[in-house]
Design brief:
The chain is an alpha/beta fold. The protein is built from ten helices and twelve strands.
Length: about 300
Amino acid sequence: MTQRRIGIDLGGTKTEVILLNGDSETLFRTRIPTVRDDYAATVEAISGLVEQAEAQAGAGALPVGVGIPGSVSRKTGLVKNANSTWLNGKPLQADLSKRLGREVKVTNDANCLAVSEATDGAAAGYEYTFAAILGTGCGAGLARRGEAVAGPNGVAGEWGHNPLPWTSETELQSRRCYCGRFGCQETFLSGTGLCLSYERMTGETLQGSEIAERAEAGERAAVMVINDYIECLARGFAAVINVLDPDVIVVGGGVSNMAAIYDRVPALLPNYVFGGECDTPVVRAVHGDSSGVRGAAWLNPLNA
């Protein structure tokens, strides 16, 4: 029997399940709106998706991996640093394992993105991958030779909760983050941050895709917001290169669909990378918004 496994991507707006075979082919995939502000309902929603995938497979107790917008503390086993704040302080891995009657592995969703793209995506063939998720939040994951690098504190790649580099203190203090600090890159570089920038300039609330469309149509405010966003993103990536110097930067999440990132950010990087030189490729995730859920499926060893 072809080996199969299940991945779950718990995002800010959607929760997705995928069923893969041993050749990483998709056998089943569906998504539901993310249950918000209700931990018990979140556990049930994830479990229901797993059971739905197993029903499609005609099998039970398949390996399950879950990517979340946070991490699991090695000390306590509790979720920490999640921008889906109702998960924080909860034993999600233990509760899912108990509910589903098997070991369920839970890790940061950006680590899942990094593993997926390093395995057979945009970063295939590179040794060291930095994968950024620019969506509802702003996170990142690391993979070396196709394996996630979490670090002893479980925070490797938590790029979104550093201050945006080369930014004035006034501008940093004007953006409060859910983590309790000010000026985190998440408040600038996430899709939410992009929308906030436009709202602050115009007083109008739009989706990120709408802002991009208006910029393409030549609306002055939208063009200015996108230009500023691209500059900020280049500064954020340059700081990563100055510390890690990865072989490739992969971009996922809803904002990754913005073509200007790949057209313009690489040219701006030498302005901020130490030494004034930078050849680091910045590429879009091949698997798009499926990368996280695919990577989650690879967290657990195959046994069915």
